[in-house]
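We modelled the chain as a single entity of 418 amino acids. Its sequence is:
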Amino acid sequence: MNEIPSSFTGQRGSLTQNAGIGQGPVPLYPYRSQAFFELERDRVFRRAWLMIGRVEELPEAGCFIVRQIDPCAVSALITRDKDGKVQAFYNSCSHRGSKIIDVAEGRQTRFACPYHGWTYANDGRLANIPDERNFFDIDKATCGLKQIATEVWDGWIFVNLSSPPEVTLAEFLGPFRDHLAGYVYLGADTPVIFSATLNANWKVVSDAFIETYHIPFIHPKTIGPTFASDENPFGRFLTAKTLGPHGYASMYGNSGYATHPDHHVERIAYKAAASVISAAATNETEAFLCHPAVNPTASASWSMDDNLLFPHVQIGNGPGGFWTHHFWPLTVNTCRYESRFYMRPATNMRERFQHELYVGRVIEVILEDLKNVSTTQEGIDTGGQEFMQLQDSEICIRHNVSQIIRWAEAATVKEALS
């Protein structure tokens, strides 16, 4: 499929047409139907490979992290064993099912259940049973922590709750795997993390971060001047493409934007930066900027790319690095949102100052987006509208909803991916 860069005054709907997806109204029932929410939980989140972290969070043997897979009520314990293998387990004791670890991360070679002291090695093996002689011919070799299918790709940790998974991670990623292969992840071990529980369907929140049509209205004084201009007042995409259930969009940036002469703080912070939406100096990002998935149209008017990893993750990149958004369903109209912004540690005061200003900008923009999601959900829940009327710059929403419906209706994952 050839990419067609979207001319700001050119052919209407060219990106959507080029992706080969429909252009009609998109149904709203996936955003408010309890029955669909249950299908989504069972046929999307229990069958898809879910990205839950990076290997840098487990820097050495004995390290562990705990992740809550909310839609399926699963607490996952992810460890790195003495051989360096990363493996996820259900955070549940084989004795009576009690939760074993109740902290978010740590480093230890043994996990002892707080209820009765059953102890496990960090590779999942059952190591010790108190008063073992009083059990009835118990086989410790079969009573280890139950594994969750786990694979690692390009430093990203994925789990799959199907036993066994219907497809491999490589099959699930498809062309997305080649699209981001070899990407340079700057500062992957030092994220700044934001999280919130929101009164909105998870897709409402995801949608807010994968279209630019709203920028002049939600962000007129923050990122409006950098993501739009007189040339492109609605911030139309440079390009967008579907990659199986996944995809990406490359976003416009106002190459003529300059800090106001009176904004001395901003001018000092970004003196050596790649741009005013960057957390790094230009000379630090050369290898990153050379990757073909970064600014794929090689446009001088580029701000960032958003890579959509089905079903619930976005991996964004800009001139100074990368970030992630995770969207976890809780109920049909509530969700947990988490974003992680990655920057390599500052080496001097100017860099630290730049990072602080960058994070401050990010927080302000995110809050503008999140302020709007609950009222959007309230409007959807009134039931007055049955469909969304989407335009070309909302191609990612259109594709994502169509894929979620496809997975919810498909009897098998192979059918959903076909």
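As a brief sanity check on the tokenised model: The chain has two domains: 14-31+182-417, 49-173. Confidence is low (pLDDT under 50) at residues 1-6.
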